Amino acid sequence: MEIDPKNFPRDGFLELLGVEVIDLTPERCEVRLEINDTHHQPYGIVHGGVYCTLAESAASVGAVMAIGGKPAVGMSNHTDFLRSMREGTITAVATPIHVGRSSQLWEVDMTDQEGRKVAQSKVRLFNLPDGVAD
Asked: One of 20, 56, 87, 114 is an active-site residue; which one?
């Protein structure tokens, strides 16, 4: 299943941050974020939580596509921070490592506008059997 990323429903948190879905298929999800001062921690660099959010968002959206539009929710998010940023654009690309009946594992590479890797994540997700989170 492939859908137009411009028509993908965005939640309030992604709207708040300014995350844009660029590409979306069952095998790949690409999101992008233009950095501004609201994404900084007190030392003027991008807050680590921004990278974790991008990873979780890209993996979650991709995971939903991978199982035909059914809900999937994050179970764990391991993010390594490789290079700090103050400004520019972060692009996160999520690809599945494993898509199973009950869980999925996705890898997310995040790069800056010059293509340098700034963070990398692995996100494990649970496929909700009834479409409802407890």
From this structure: 56
Q: What is the CATH number of the domain that holds 9?
A: 3.10.129.10
- pTM here? 0.89
- Give the chain's end-to-end CA distance (angstroms, integer): 27
Residue 41 belongs to what H/E stretch?
Answer: none
Q: For residue 15, indicate whether it is catalytic.
A: no
Q: State how many domains the chain has.
A: 1
Residue 106 lies in a domain: yes
Mean of pLDDT values over 6-28: 79
pLDDT per residue as tens digits for the range 88-103: 999 999 999 999 999 9
